[in-house]
């Protein structure tokens, strides 16, 4: 089984502007849409879309629970969330300007979780997770969830001997590296934050590869670089028109872990995950991608082994 853990869930509110964003002017919206938010949820959605069984774990606020649940049900996610009483799940605002590539993301901090809430989540995780499982922890940590709570969670998972994947950033990612997890996927900015802003990307990757079995450093339209088992790979992706790149990394991680769980070879897994993410960026919302399109794009992805000295 694959489990995803979203500690700081969100509902994505997509704001489609009639024109481009201009200060000191009324910026009218042409439409508003809602989509699933939270990086673990996005990963779960990618896996479910690929027909790979998984369950989304984490927290959810109770005051707007029906709003999040409506989206979870629409997206056909299998979930079991710890309810945090009297708090709303935050909204993340994704601003999409007319005829402009990419998106602007604005997020709320999220509700505060108590030590009791954290205990409930830990109990659930203790109960469910077994050695053969894959667990993805993704996204930010909510107020009240401290680094030592993450460390404890990681140790619970380490004791289970399951495969631990982390899509985290900043001090949380540093902690995951320190504890030693099986997979991380920092983007170009996130890796600079935790290793060095001066070193070339490949040097930073080399450094992380000493501690982590699978490292993928994603670079948006530039593709990614990966290290595993002493080997280094350069992944070049096809050119597509990117409408909304928010969630590209989440889609990549979901598809990567889904394929890995099916026992597919690494090079194929890297190409397929890149195909899925390249499909994703062509859609306006945070989650949608086409499996058919992904398979066509996969054929245009180049995975080359790098000769290292
Ligand atoms: P997220 O918003 O999900 O956190 P991220 O910043 O972690 O995203 P990116 O590096 O932006 O992740 O993208 C992840 C992967 O998605 C890239 O390595 C690439 O394979 C694919 N991708 C992203 N943008 C594009 C693009 N414009 N064209 C083709 N592929 C893309
Ligand atoms: Mg990005
Ligand atoms: Mg990311």
Number of strands: 14
Task: Supply the CATH superfamily name.
Answer: Ribokinase
Roughly how much helix do the residues carry, as a percent range?
25-40%
Give average pLDDT, whole number.
96
CATH overall fold name: UDP-N-acetylmuramoyl-L-alanine:D-glutamate ligase
Q: State which percent range the strand residues make up.
A: 25-35%
Name the shape in a single word: globular
Number of helices: 10
List the secondary-structure elements in sequence, H or E.
EEEHEHEEEHEHEHEHHEEEHHHE
Domain Carbohydrate kinase PfkB: 18-288
Protein name: Tagatose-6-phosphate kinase
EC number: 2.7.1.144
Family: Belongs to the carbohydrate kinase pfkB family. Belongs to the carbohydrate kinase PfkB family. LacC subfamily.
Write a structural description.
With 309 residues, the protein is of the alpha/beta class. It has one domain (2-306): 3-Layer(aba) Sandwich (UDP-N-acetylmuramoyl-L-alanine:D-glutamate ligase), CATH 3.40.1190. Helices cover 36% and strands 26% of the residues. The protein has helices at 39-49, 65-74, 115-128, 147-160, 170-179, 188-194, 201-209, 248-261, 266-280, 291-298, and strands at residues 2-6, 10-17, 29-37, 54-61, 79-84, 90-96, 104-107, 134-138, 163-167, 183-184, 214-218, 224-228, 231-236, 302-306. The strands form two sheets. Strands 5-4-1-8-9-10-11-12-13-14 form a ten-stranded mixed sheet, with helices on both faces. A four-stranded mixed sheet has the order 3-2-6-7. A hairpin with a 2-residue loop joins strand 12 (224-228) and strand 13 (231-236). The longest helix has 15 residues, at 266-280. The chain is globular. The mean pLDDT is 96. It binds adenosine-5'-triphosphate (ATP) and magnesium ion (2 copies).
């Amino acid at each position: 089984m694959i489990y995803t853990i979203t500690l700081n869930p969100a509902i994505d509110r997509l704001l489609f502007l009639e024109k481009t964003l201009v200060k000191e002017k009324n910026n009218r919206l042409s439409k508003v849409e809602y989509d699933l938010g939270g990086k673990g949820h996005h990963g779960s959605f990618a896996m479910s879309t690929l027909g790979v069984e998984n369950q989304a774990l984490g927290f959810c606020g109770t005051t707007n629970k029906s709003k999040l649940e409506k989206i979870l049900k629409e997206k056909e996610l299998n979930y079991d969330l710890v309810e945090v009483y009297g708090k709303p799940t935050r909204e993340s605002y994704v601003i999409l300007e007319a005829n402009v590539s990419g998106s602007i993301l604005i997020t709320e901090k999220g509700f505060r979780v108590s030590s009791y809430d954290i205990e409930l989540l830990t109990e659930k995780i203790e109960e469910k997770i077994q050695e053969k499982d894959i667990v993805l922890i993704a996204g930010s940590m909510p107020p009240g969830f401290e680094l030592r709570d993450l460390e404890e969670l990681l140790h619970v998972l380490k004791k289970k001997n399951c495969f631990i994947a982390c899509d985290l950033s900043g001090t949380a990612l540093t902690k995951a590296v320190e504890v030693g997890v099986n997979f991380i996927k920092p983007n170009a900015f996130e890796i600079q934050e935790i290793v060095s802003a001066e070193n070339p990307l490949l040097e930073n990757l080399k450094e992380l590869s000493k501690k982590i079995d699978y490292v993928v450093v994603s670079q948006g339209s530039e593709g990614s670089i990966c290290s595993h088992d002493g080997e280094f790979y350069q992944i070049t992706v096809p050119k597509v028109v990117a409408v909304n790149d928010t969630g590209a990394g989440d889609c990549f991680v979901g598809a990567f872990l889904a394929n890995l769980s099916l026992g597919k070879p690494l090079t194929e897994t890297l190409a397929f995950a890149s195909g899925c993410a390249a499909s994703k960026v062509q859609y306006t919302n945070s989650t949608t991608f086409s499996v058919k399109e992904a398979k066509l794009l996969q054929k245009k992805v180049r995975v080359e082994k790098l000769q290292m000295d």
